[in-house]
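During the first year of the project, the team set up a workflow for recording each protein of interest as an amino acid sequence followed immediately by a discrete structure-token representation. This format lets reviewers and collaborators read both layers of information side by side without switching files. As required by the reporting guidelines, we include two representative entries from the current panel. The first entry is reproduced here exactly as it appears in our internal archive.
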Amino acid sequence: MKKIVKLSMIALVASLAVGCATNGDIENLQSQIDGLKTSVAQASSDAAAAQSAANDASAKAAAAEAAANRAAQYAQDTNSKLDNMFKRSMMK
């Protein structure tokens, strides 16, 4: 019985010594976590900048579309006027 208890104690001490993380391991993990936090913050900042640029581009595209629609309307009006002038000149 004493032999089993001694072997159990030795096995317990050995497993605790081998299974526990060292301070170096914990510090290494903490530095990796800090690095990831920095990367996440940078990615978030980049995403916000990209969203802002996309919104600006969308606004400019809408303005360009409105200008193109006005130009098309002016061209159509001008063509209509020219057709009317041509018809009048042919009637004379």
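The second entry, processed by the same pipeline in the following quarter, appears below.
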Amino acid sequence: MSEFPVRGQALVVRGPGDVILEERTHSAPEGNQVLVEPHFVGVCGTDLEITSGALDPAYVRYPLVLGHEWSGKVLAVGEQVQGLRVGDAVVVEGIVPCSVCHACRAGKTNLCENYDELGFTLDGAAGPAVTTPAHLVHRLSADVPLDAGALVEPGAVVLRGLLELDLVPGQSVLIIGDGTVALLAANLVRMWSPSSVTMSGRRPEQEELARALGVDHFTVQAPDTAAFDVVIEAAGATAAVETAIDAARRGGQVLLLGIAGHGNTAKLPVDDVVNNDLRIRGSFSYTAAAWAETVRLLNSGSFQPLPLVTHRVHLDDYEKALDLLANPTGGPRGKILIEMHGGK
């Protein structure tokens, strides 16, 4: 059992452009709470938007501790918690649903009317500990590497979007983008046995990593027009949205996963959407059901995202992590993990 309070350095965004390390403390969990020590924290493009102030203000509240993609081990449990023990390797749902609004009752916890999320409106995992309700904590199997658990969050985001589509074997799939979400989309869509997976990226250096994660064809050229049954936009740019709609064949489906920046708009060729009978689906974050399914796939060995991790840094070198994220150079760049406490 840990000594309380638990203290340590945390990566804090006090406001746009104001990022520091400062000490945070956590008291013992009570009731149905669980205290979890983060071991691995992923950083992504959304973290850059949080640090710069570009994220829609409806989804962020400063100051905050970064870290919405992470895994760790249980430090302590409240007196009402059952099924979890100190030392358990776990992942924790970041969205904290109210469970009483219309969306939550319909199972759409990603659309909770009382939105709260770790690393956005609540302190995230790039610190000494996270206190969370026990029902959001999911155990990892003993044979699952703890660092792989940090990929559950982006995996759940992708899986939720894919589950919203009408996917059947034999479809041709195009992924637009070559970052973490795009690479996970290429990997997870393989569960539906597509005829081919093509990735339209920006950096030739990403090709080897893309092929390792299930991409058949990689290009940095514009994709063919009206050539794909399913197009997944994961680049987070308005131009990518326009390209996605253009690349879908008649009767095709377009899934939008990227965040292009609050207030940015893309041109929509309305007649083409209608005449081509296109289905365009946006997908926000993940539901509790998608999270649970992603954990199940990870624990069963069906989802093995660890090859996606290309960089690891320690917390006190967080500036390097953010710079690698913003300015990829010198080879492939997949997921960047911050190793908390040496990653042990």
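For the second entry, the following points were noted during internal review. The chain has two domains: 6-155+286-343, 165-282. The longest strand covers residues 33-43. Both points are flagged for discussion at the upcoming steering committee meeting.
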